[in-house]
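Hi everyone, sorry if this is the wrong subforum. Our group has a chain we'd like a structural model of before ordering constructs, and none of us has done structure prediction before. Sequence below.
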Amino acid sequence: MVGKDGIVKKLLETKDFFPSLIFWGPPGTGKTTLARIIANTLKREFHEFSAVNTKVKDIEALIQDKKQLKLTNAPIIFLDEIHRFNKAQQDKLLPHVEHGDIVLIGATTENPSFEVISPLLSRCRVLILSQLSEKNLLKILGRALKHLKKKLNKEAEKFLLEASDGDARVMLNVMEIAASLVTTPTIKIPDLETALQRRQYTFDKRGEDFYNVISAFIKSMRASNVDSALYYLARMVAAGQDPLYIARRMVVFASEDVASPTALVVANAVFQACNTIGYPECQENLAAGVFYLATAKKDRSAYNAYMEALADVNRFGNLPVPLKIRNPVTKLMKDVGYGEGYEKYTKDSLLPEKLSGKRYYKTNGRTSDSGRN
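Answer:
Right subforum, don't worry. Here is the predicted structure as tokens:
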């Protein structure tokens, strides 16, 4: 994103025009920092807001003041957690973005497809920030240690990187607290554990990081191995993992891997229970849901069929819908063939011509008639 041929560097080189952006990525990946760098590079006025405690009228008042000053370049408005603004609040930002009164940079940890209104999303470029790698964290950690005038032994460094889970903010906060607690030049694991307040079980020294555990959890349910699935669930619960994150993965699993549609009902019920009850009691809801999903009959036919259809959409774009199944709303549309022969159509003739005869849904290696509708 910010490398030699990265999108941000190329946009900065245009100088006169810079689009509004949405930064989407996990916590502690540098969304706010990158926004500040962009503002400094462009030499634009920069104003930070958080959707948690900001009203739209605060932003509108600032915009009005800037209009009166007749600035040559639009100021950059950084709105953290933009997904916290509701539809009406986002609607009020739309004209200011559209007219170029501001350059909006929104930051969110949630999928903007669901959390940002379509008109605003269409006027912004979405840039995805990935979880920081160990290499990224080591570079940041080196700067932090130099600033704090402290050292870490190898064991403590490994522990801290695993405990940070790709979040530079967590790592820096723990380092800062630990550095303030010790008088020696070297920070050790007990010092970091004190700063963390409790051992993060998911990130222990054996290297079982979060993504390994969640992967093992899903694969255990897929393999119908109840004991393993419950063990990895317990690992995540003990580490304090957000129960809604676990429940969301179960909802996805229910649609991807389980034959019965009842599985989706069960998974959604678990999600709602977790949302309503919370820890510690909701761990029982999670366990009951995991038991059901792990023991249920597995079938990925529907998921695989959809992914194959989606691949064709991405490959061929918007292929014309056959005239015979278009709705003849007007006389002209009927005259040119819309809906002609609709009553006589066969199951083999509903796809666009380029995909005629294509079969996506298969069971046991054979095409299923039930998947042609």
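For your construct planning: The first strand starts at residue 20 and ends at 24. Strands lie at 20-24, 46-50, 76-80, 103-108, 124-128, 151-152, 186-187, 362-363, 366-367.
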